[in-house]
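Entry for the shared binder. Reason: the reviewer on the internal report wants the predicted structure included alongside the sequence.
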Amino acid sequence: MHRMLGFCLAIVFVMSFLGVGCAADQTKPAVERSSLVTAKATVEALNLENRLITLKGPKGDVVTFRVDESVKNLPQVKVGDQVVAKYYESVAVRIAKPGESLATETSGLSSAKPGEMPEAVAARQVTVTASVEAIDKQAPSITLKGPEGNVVTVIVRDPKNLEKVKVGDNLAITYTEAVAISVERAEK
């Protein structure tokens, strides 16, 4: 039931966090929001035999965890190197064309080649069409029905956007997320 999970994730994210908006032009998103968060930590200790790494964050917090066997080239990492994690997410919402029905989920993963510093990129995109079942301008909230019949009611961040949709409209919602993790040599 990945589609159902994707639908719920996309709807909750769009509606409760960003708000929803739609436009008369059905070819481009009326709401398109994205964010990128970058975090860095310094390698404090490394136990290659047990695949344990200890990282120190920018606020001084220290965490040790086991590195999965799927992480290639761990021996390339040295104490003092920087682990950089970047998380990206975006949402696009538009009124779907009449008869348009979407329910797709795609994902991908790539990692470092042998001999390179460890790195990996994973991405996922979920697109669904949800029908507007009810609008409550007092709450303000909107009730949407997903492609598998699941129904969710969520609070809308910007009540003005409720004026742009009506019961019976179909919304095409695309949620994209990606994470990239890399190791950079310590500056000398």
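Summary line for the report: Residues 2-35+86-181 form one domain.
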